Amino acid sequence: MSKHKKILILCTGNSCRSQMAEGILKSFDSTLEVYSAGTDIAKEVHPKAIKVMQEIGIDISKNYPKKVDMFLNQSFDYVITVCDSARDTCPNFIGDVKHKIHIGFDDPAKAQGTDEEVLKVFRKVRDEIYSSFKELYEKNL
Fold first, then answer.
1. Residue 106, burial from CB neighbour count under 10 angstroms (0-12, 13-18, 19+)
2. Angle at which helices 47-55 and 17-28 cross, to 10°
3. In this structure, is residue 1 part of a structural domain?
4. Which domain, by its residues, includes 76?
5. Number of compact structural domains in the chain
6. CB atoms within 10 A of CB 123
7. Annotated catalytic sites, by residue?
8. CATH code for the domain in which residue 49 is found
């Protein structure tokens, strides 16, 4: 289905949503070249993001947050923002981009409550990302 598409997923911290989206897209099609990055990166991929992805058989434990600057001189078929602040702070990705898409998700890292309540939010966001990116993949990639 894919003709070697190159995709960059942008978020603010590159610790949750963009990392989950990267792992999910790669799970659909190993020929996709998928990267994720942030505008104000976190120190690490959120441990709960790693945990909820492992629950669906996707390992992002070796991933690490990357600054968007390292991709500015590259060409992409798609640049996809997954949080509103990344869309606002990165409206003009300077690299060569064929398609820019915004698919916003709540930030699970902001969830509060017990460990189980917070995990529930991470699972909800993970499932929303899965559904949205599955639809995107089937229609466009």
1. middle
2. 30
3. no
4. 6-140
5. 1
6. 16
7. 11, 83, 90
8. 3.40.50.2300
